[in-house]
Design goal:
With 83 residues, the protein is of the alpha+beta class. The chain contains two helices and five strands; from the N terminus they run ββααβββ.
């Protein structure tokens, strides 16, 4: 599951499904192709605090309104890491 934090005033979102990106990476897909496959966009009502959407592959994307959560000092295997 991917959690996306959106600003308090946002009425649309654009994000990437982390599960699709990881499946593309482990499946040998070109990065540009994986990005296109993982792209998720849509609209969200200004009064909606949290919502759940699904990417094209059916993975859950949770949208939460508010500021960014505090940074985690530890990395877990479910998080993407840029190198």
């Amino acid at each position: 599951m991917t959690t996306v934090w959106i600003s308090p005033s946002a009425t649309s979102y654009s994000c990437l499904c982390e599960t699709c990106l990881e499946e593309g990476r482990t499946g040998g897909m070109l990065f540009a192709d994986a990005l296109m496959l993982a792209s998720v966009r849509g609209e969200i009502g200004a009064d909606v605090e949290a919502a759940s959407r699904r990417c094209r592959a059916g993975h859950e994307i949770v949208l939460r309104r508010g500021g960014r959560p505090p940074s985690s000092s530890s990395h877990h295997e479910g998080q993407l890491q840029l190198a």
